[in-house]
Amino acid sequence: MRLKIPQFLVTLMIVGALMLGGCSTEQVASNSSPISTATEASTNSTAETTTNTANTATTSVPQNISESIPGMKDLPRLEGKATVVMTVKGSPITIEVDGTNAPITAGNFVDLVQKGVYDGLVFHRVVRQPQPFVVQGGDPQSKDPKVPASRLGTGSFTDPKTGKIRYVPLEIKPKGAEEPIYGKTLEAAGVTQPPVLQHKQGAVAMARSQMPDSASSQFYFALADLAFLDGSYAVFGNVTNGFDVVNKIQQGDRIDSAKVTQGAENLKNAA
Predict the structure, then answer these.
(1) Which end of the chain lies in a sparser environment, N or C, as judged by fewer CB atoms within 10 Å?
(2) Where are the domains positioned within the chain?
(3) Tell me, what's the pLDDT at 108?
(4) Does domain 7-54+77-265 sit in CATH 3.40.50.2020?
């Protein structure tokens, strides 16, 4: 007989299991409780879930001025879709990357794939208990086997040309909107419409700290439908083939390689 656990208790247990993650040193300096995980939003998931599911009225979406975020116009951008094949322990995972609805987030991911950033990196966080949750990786520090496991989850991509960390703004496109919302959760933006890209099983999204615009290279696979994260984290793609491989990933497994197999021509502004 399976013990039934109330949803809010499950959420608290998940948060407890992941609160040890951190963000970059630069971010730690400006935030005393950073959480570089896919689950910072679950601390207020009950309220967000109520907002997203109970309020079905159409709300006008604020206009976005992408230039309002410094450096955003120079970030890689995916204009359309691309396919990435990520190989883990010899088995392929096919990811459809959606630059139509998340151009900056998708462009960042495809650009990092093209640069070989993900090759050899570790999946440092895998949460399947008390229920399937996420598989998270993408910390560049994990390429070095000498880096202690306790530090994994704190790293970001540093552009070798500038010596600076590349951050991408939180990017979420509500249904019915022409452009994504940038730099805010949908709740903070006063938007009640659900996002176009949702946390369905197999979704691929960016991990970040408590600061909305702190995503860099860390990403996660959703192991189940995680509606309480919708509107708070940027989904940019989904697994179209090989989810059985994702389901077998264990903490410490490495990415053999990640390659763009289709749609590379849709990547713009790549340095």
Answers:
(1) N
(2) 7-54+77-265
(3) 98
(4) no
